[in-house]
Amino acid sequence: MKMDASTAQTRSRTYAALAQDFARPQEGLEAEYARLFIGPGRPVAHPYESVYREGRVMGDCTLAVRQSYAAEGLAPEGHTLPDHVAVELEFMAYLIRREAEAWERGDGEGALACLRQQETFLGEHLGRWLPRFGQRVLAGKAHPFYANLVQRTREHVARDIAQVRAWLSAAEPADERGHWTVAVGSECTLCGLCARLCPHEALRLTQDEGEMCLLFDPAPCGGCAACQQWCPEGAVTVEASPPIEGQRVLMRSPLVTCPGCGRPYLSAALLNKVREQAARDDEGLQRRLALCPACKVSSPISLRKHPGGDQQAS
Question: Which residue in 14, 34, 38 sits closest to 89, CA to CA?
Fold first, then answer.
């Protein structure tokens, strides 16, 4: 893809279409839309940024995005909150339309300024909470239309963040290009997905002295935010930063030793997360979860009856 009016127009139309699908229910799916995003009662996935970043509706995030809109002379219609997913997607469509207009005028500097606005909004807002929102929708056994919608939206935003940052990096002199830092929250389980997805090998998992560690090297990091977009726990944040030197430890956790063979093979943080989610009431499954893959294969699986009469592996 290249930076020009045609590319910008295509990107803008994609964001606008995604915004429209989140803004109102599809015909025949009104009840499912309400179940997922509105209620009555607690919806499957609140469609507001502040819920995922601050744990409440109408938080500081809400005010921040409203200020971003106001700076452009915009405001959400009706009673829709400014940090609703549809409004944030529509704002991206607007920023990209402005970029397209700048390219059409032959205003390259103006187009780059619009790209910088897009990068800022994606990095500070939409890209920071969309993955967790999508996870909740998918975990709520959404109708295929909405499951596909959140998956398409997550993938589009992830690719767009990487593309915008690549364009800006290529357009700026080497000594003026942005620097990036990665941070992880306490939700990190050291599953290693971020390290496997990093195209620049800026993230790396290590095992040493009974610990598993996630290391970050800022030198090769290109700010693509693949780690942030695809972290299953929503624990990763990628932000612009001053130049940073040297490798840093982002997260560490004790290594779990397999009770079958004695080999350390995964982090205690990951095992505890899996136990919490999948095995709250099944002691047999909890014991098997602690085994390494090789011992799981060689360990016999017994079946026991539950009070309801169903059989379950233990």
Answer: 14
Q: Alpha helices of 24-84 — where are they, by DSSP H?
A: 30-37, 49-54, 60-71
Highest mean pLDDT range out of 112-121, 123-132, 173-182?
A: 112-121
Angle 32-33-38 from CA coordinates, rounded to 5° = 115
Asked whether the bond before 218 is cis by omega within 30 degrees of 0, the reply is no
* Residues 115-127: tens digit of each pLDDT: 999 999 998 899 8
Tell me the pLDDT band of 73, cut-offs 50, 70 and 90.
very high
**Helix ranges restricted to H, 126-192:** 127-139, 144-171
The answer to whether residues 214 and 184 touch, using CB atoms and an 8 Å cutoff, is yes
Q: What is the chain's Cα-based Rg?
A: 22
As given in the structure block, the two tokens for residue 246 are: 């040297």
Q: What is the pTM of this model?
A: 0.70
CATH T-level topology, domain 179-254: Alpha-Beta Plaits (3.30.70)
Task: Delimit the domains of the chain by residue range.
Answer: 5-174, 179-254, 256-313
- What is the per-residue pLDDT across 213-243, written as a single tens digit (0 to 9) for each? 999 998 888 787 788 877 878 788 888 788 8
Q: Considering the domain 5-174, what is its CATH architecture? A: Orthogonal Bundle (1.10)
